[in-house]
Fold this sequence. Notes:
mainly alpha; 5-stranded parallel sheet; 4-stranded mixed sheet; 13 strands; 5% strand
Amino acid sequence: MPESEPRAAAIPGAPLPLTQFIGRTTERVSVLSLLEQHRLVTLTGPGGCGKTRLALAVAQQIGGRRHWVALSNLDSAELVAPTVARSLGLLDANSAVSTDAIASALADQPVLLILDTCEHVRHTAADLAESLLVRCPDLTIVTTSRTPLRVPGEMLWPVPPLATQAGAHPTATQHVDAVELFVERALAVRPDFMVDDDGVAGVLAICRRLDGNPLAIELCAARAQVLSVEQIVEALDDSLRLLVQRSSSAPERQQTLRATLDWSHRLLSAEEAQLFRRCAVFAGGATLSGVVAVAGNDLTSGAVLDLLTGLADSSLLRVDLSSGTARYELPDPVRQYANERLVVAAEETSCRDRHLDWCLDQLTAADHVFGPARKMAFAKLETELPNLRAAFAWSRQVTDAGRALQLAAGFAGFGVAHGHYREGRQWLELALAGDGSTDNSRFEPSLLARALNATGVLAFLQCDYAAASARLQEGRAVFDALGDRRGAAMAMQSMGSIARERGDYRHAEELLTANLELWRSMDDQQAVGETLARLAFNAVLQGNQEAARTSARACLGIGRRLADSGIVASALLMLGGAARLADDLGAATAYFEEAYACAAEDQLAEATAYAEEGLGMVALAKGDLAGAATLLSSSLQRQHELGDHWRTSSLLVEMATCQRLRGRPREAAQLLGAAEALLEQIGAALPPIERTDREQTGVFVTASLSKDEREAAWMAGASAPLAATVAAAISDLRSRPALTPISGPAPRTTRRMASASVNASASAGPRQAPDLVSTASMTIQALGREVVHLQGQTLTAADFSYAKPRELLFYLADLEFATKGDIGLALWPEATGTELRSAFHTTLYHLRRAVGAARIVFDQGGYRLDRDGVEYDVASFGSALSDARASTSRAEELRHLRRATELYAGDFLPSSSPEWALQTRDELRHRYQRALLAMGRILLAGGGHAAAVEAYRRVIVSDPLNETAYRELMRCYQALGEPSRAIQQYELLTNALRDELGTSPDESTIELYQKIRASFSA
């Protein structure tokens, strides 16, 4: 049962709640702790977040004299003092009052004064609170307000949303605060309401959409009287209408979500209200520069930042700092409300047009950079993907065919690099279709040519060769008409790749060789590198190792000079294929492993799958059937998810080879049937170097099965849905990987290189991080890298089969206990009950296979990681910090701080970034920064200025806007007799604050700079 709230009648003037107070145990402890050290604590947060109820619960736990003053119904600031006086029993409604009289009444003993709902009278309330605190040394004040009072000594405590994230509580999912509140309030209107483990996922989805806001959850739960949980989820797209409940006990401003938002909106200045409604166009939030460009109305970034600060102070805007760059976002119900305001103000069209232009600018900027800069640009686009989708939807809503096509064409290069094949092609086809017209003359010719070419490339990547060829030929015709040699060469390059996959290797070589000469004549080294990789691949598929090696080596040289990881990975894959052809398994392994590291670092999913395939075939050649099955299964899953049917068909043949070597003819026949049906469907050919394996497996099947058995197995594979065939193949090979193989010749095969790109591929060389293998039976490293060692061996991505099992391991390592519901919400937040059951059990199975079934323990209704013999760097980092806090000397503290900062090799789960990890990442990063600052202070106090410099510089690397670190670094350089370097640090700080935040250093930093500058001049 939820913890009951103490009766509030003991506090004069306090409201008497009619419902139970749910959870907030940690919050109450935190606020009580603050009140032991501060005399004025303001509970802030958006309307309905529970400020009043939390203040009441805290007040009930404090003994002595207490007074509650409700200010919510005041329509004039002049009534603040009289209302406080009346609560103290000083006067009736018609008497005058002075601050002196109130102070006298509060000065004789310790008193807790609660001023509830101050935002609409905050200036007067602030003046009164400041005066009373000065005159009454034993007075403590708690205020609740949507905006800070800005009184000296005020301690702000933002009331957080109710917990909705899996893992926020180590108890069962049903005991998460938000779920408890929903269920409790739903029971009030529907006594038979109940949720099981599957139903709780729906309740959690509701609570997450409502951002854990207690008022919104209560209003939503009231709808359980007439709607199912699933219906409520669907209705949340119009939450302002859904969240209405008339209640005679609730204040009018809290009877609907719209009313509480109206209350907050009325308190905004005209400029804040304007920026607020314009921010409705952002989906998934935006950075400061984005807000300035779209919603700023020609304001400077500094002015916009001030307005954003006001909106955050008013608790209407959420600020996310987890990525290192602040993003500003309106919670979903608030965004709906802001959009209504935008429409009423007749600004929607102009603002959404600016948003569309801004999205086009982001895509254009990413399309005009190369090498490592492109990788960063594409990572930024991944973050802005919700905004890009919203802009494309708007372009189609207003039937702006030209800009819709601009967006789609700009999106294509990013879509290829990050695997958004289906979405990228869909955008292009929709934009080209426009309002149904087939007249392409309405588009600007160069844009049309780019779009047609991009559509062809994406269709090729989905193995839709007929559609791809048609679009590429259309595009080339337009390029030719424009005299655009570069565009025509791009189309020719893709046509060469189509010829290769259809088995016309001679024509493919002719097209690619001509294409290579075109690129060389234009001195486009990146395109030369890509074409060389395609020529190398064409040679590998035909078994021509010398031609493959020559082209691949030239490709690798270009890729390394350009620091283009896409070209480097492709070249390494081709060199690995050539080494396989020469039976040089050692060299092949080295090439494939380096290609895997390069591709995985930059999230090149296709190249990663090719590397896994190559390593799997090397494992087969070495007789490691279990290792081959794991690697090939992972590659098959990746290629199937990407939609690459050509490569999927080859992998099915390779899986059939595994079944042959395991002595399983029926399973081998089914896989061959599925592979050939898929090749026939897409009109592709099995590469020559894979035909020997195919023929040997066919001979094995013929010798092992009767004609009827062969035909039945073949037809079963050919007629089964592809997804079911892939899933069954993966499950079967992984469930029995260690059967004794029969004798037979080693298979030979290779991979497809990282297909075609629209213009260029994402790039940057791999960043190496040391793996710290200990004597523990398992080590888990999540800081700066994501590495797991078992019995001294590094577990690869293939060992986990796919990404989710490894993510689940890190999730459990970060918790003491998690239920199935907790795990489902964290790893599959949008999954339905059926989808969650399937995904959960499959992931759990593969995790237990990777690390051992005994490692993942089920008891007390949940799951945990058996930590016996496990070293986890996050836990070690926390222990070192705890030891530092418990130290009795500076030397001991410094030793533990050094150990902690050495353990922190980088951000928590840096490459995968699951949503559940973001809060942990932010907390760990800040703890690391605080540890470095503490190290710096100790070193500086002991005269170790040079060592302190290193500590402060590490803070700045982690947080380029940490003014404290810059200031202390200036002091270090001053003490070292290097004032010029101190001045340089000040200039770096000034530029960073101006560019990123539109602000300046604070007064203490400026004062230090001026002193250093004066001494330097002297």
